[in-house]
Automatic annotation (TrEMBL), chain B:
CDD domains: MPP_UshA_N_like. It comes from the Bacteria. It comes from Oceanihabitans sediminis. This is Bifunctional metallophosphatase/5'-nucleotidase. Belongs to the 5'-nucleotidase family.
Length: 255, 305
């Protein structure tokens, strides 16, 4: 009996061995398709239950109220500057300067961000953590760049005069004539000194030339603030009870 | 004792010869068939929950709990299934911001993903951030053209892996996109990007000739095709410039292909290139049918897409 059993194993093994050796498998047909995942497919309850505590925690945190907006603000409310863009640029300047000043003893002079980087409106009413995630869903960080006044005048201001977009700025003021030529540009309300070094805060995407902003990288002094753009917004919202930003004269065009 | 062992062995040997000799004809007449199913996702970008009913673009689509059901149904029908992801697992919903990718990896492990490649956004918390989450991933990360040897990821990412399903050997290798200019250097650190065509040439040779794989799959995050930069390396260009690859599963460009593309490789042979958009809205499914019947294979491989 014992022997027979062993024989059987040997026998099966032999079949397997010959089977593999003799039989070459050839690819005869390929079928490919895309399957849409939608509500016609039932939820896997075990997976859904696993996600649940994570979902509840994230939602509870995202929905916590951190400030209040007196109105609804959109990046399309203005040709050269908008209330939401001004809020964004001012908040970044103020929050980043806390870190920059502590580290270098110097102060930031201006902010330049990009219009496309405002990813959502701020709706009238409660501002929650989710609001900051909607405005800034990306993980970009803030950087400070030391730039000569000459470079700012020649490239940064020139870029803005040609862009014809409400890129968020703070600290810098620009007046364009009817032909989009910059006839006045100031930093901290003083004419730009070509020989002075200014500290400009922007995000790492723009620093690397995003949105055609090729002028940052020619400058060798870069300060990585290790501070996410979204966190600057969150910290600002947490600091103020109410936001009430306005469109102002920081970037205008004369008719 | 000795004698008994000897007897046993000799009997076994006899059995082997006789049975082998006798059985051969019967094996060649009855042909064997098998099917290998490849399931794939790309650019899921932390989309764990389905889009809500009011979403402007993709209402009620996606969601990992539904994907789990679909995958389980397919596995029940064919256990010889591989589940792959072409990168950019991270970034896109607050789940990533709050948990750093832990939940994404845990869920992919529960869904029994077999392998994934590294996308550019998988560096969003730096190479250290990716390493920190790897203990939650019970599947392999494959990348052949990222040289991680001078980074913390060294030994954690393999160039390729060979899977065996029902006697069929399936070789899968990974390819990543050029990081310079796309990802901040402080995030990817000393990761070296190697030429995708050269590496794919090496990989397909190793998998086909040395590992004797029946199927060679490239898991790519190069992007499907760049209309404004047609010479930039992409999945379609990779297909043309290589041989011995059966399927390129792509990502990065969030391309919603209505069906897999049948491209031609450098030898004029067919290569399937597929990509299923993004955010876990779709699942790609490619079935490879194998047959031992020489008459069937003589007709070549038919592709139904």
């Amino acid at each position: 009996m014992h022997m027979n059993y062993k024989h059987l194993i040997v026998f099966l093994f032999t079949i397997l061995l010959f089977n593999c050796k003799e039989e070459k498998m050839n690819l005869v047909r390929i079928e490919g398709k895309k399957i849409n995942i939608n509500d016609s497919i039932e939820l896997n309850q075990e997976i859904d239950d696993f996600v649940k505590p994570y979902r509840e925690h994230v939602n509870k945190d995202l929905d916590s109220v951190i400030s209040y907006a007196v109105d609804t603000y959109s990046k399309s409310d203005g040709d050269f500057n908008t209330a939401i863009g001004n809020l964004f640029a001012d908040a970044v300047l103020e929050q980043s300067n806390i870190i920059f000043n502590k580290r270098t003893g110097e102060n930031l002079d201006m902010t330049l961000l990009n219009h496309g980087g405002i990813r959502s409106i701020i709706s009238k009413g409660n501002i929650t953590t989710r609001t900051a995630f909607e405005i800034m869903p990306f993980e970009n960080s803030l950087v400070a760049v030391a730039m000569k006044g000459q470079t700012i005048q020649d490239s940064l201001v020139r870029y803005l005069s040609r862009a014809k977009r409400a890129h968020p700025i703070a600290g810098l003021k620009i007046k364009l004539d009817k032909d989009f030529k910059a006839i006045e540009a100031t930093i901290n309300n003083k004419p730009i000194d070509p020989n002075k070094t200014y500290y400009v805060v922007t995000n790492d995407y723009l620093y690397h030339g995003g949105d055609g902003m090729s002028f940052f990288q020619t400058n060798d002094s870069l300060y990585d603030l290790n501070y996410k753009v979204r966190n600057a917004l969150l910290d600002h919202f947490k600091k103020v009870d109410t936001i009430n930003p306005v469109r102002d004269d920081r970037f205008i065009k004369l008719n | 004792m000795k004698r008994r062992e000897f007897l046993q062995q000799s009997t076994a040997a006899t059995a082997l010869v006789t049975l082998g000799g006798l059985s051969l004809p019967s094996f060649t007449t009855g042909s064997r068939e098998t099917k290998i199913t490849i399931l794939h996702t790309n650019d899921v970008h932390s989309h764990i929950d389905a889009f809500g009913p009011n979403d402007g673009r993709n209402p009620n689509q996606g969601g990992v709990a539904r994907r789990a059901t679909l995958i389980q149904n397919i596995r029940n029908e064919n256990p010889n299934t591989l589940l792959l992801d072409a990168g950019d697992i991270f970034q896109g919903t607050p789940y990533f911001n709050y948990y750093g990718g832990e939940l994404e990896f845990k869920l992919m492990s529960k869904l029994k993903y077999d392998a994934a490649t590294v996308g550019n956004h998988d560096f969003d918390n730096g190479i250290d951030g990716l390493l920190a989450q790897l203990p939650h991933a019970k599947f392999d990360f494959l990348s052949a053209n990222y040289d991680f040897s001078n980074t913390v990821l060294d030994t954690f990412v393999k160039p390729y892996k060979v899977f065996k399903k029902d006697g069929i050997k399936i070789g899968v290798f990974g390819l990543g996109i050029k990081l310079d200019g796309l990802v901040d250097k402080k995030m990817y650190k000393e990761t070296k990007y190697l030429d995708p065509v050269e590496i794919a040439t090496d990989m397909s040779r190793i998998l086909k000739d040395e590992e004797k794989c029946d199927l060679v799959i490239c898991l790519s995050h190069l992007g499907y095709h760049y209309r404004n930069a047609p010479n930039k390396i992409s999945d379609l260009n990779l297909a043309k410039a290589t041989k011995n690859i059966d399927l390129i599963i792509g990502g990065h460009t969030h391309t919603f292909l209505p069906k897999p593309t049948v491209a031609q490789n450098m030898e004029g042979k067919n290569v399937l290139v597929n990509q299923v958009g993004c955010f876990g809205i779709n699942l790609g499914k490619i079935d490879f049918y194998f047959d031992s019947d020489k008459n069937k294979s003589a007709k070549g491989t038919s592709i139904i897409v």
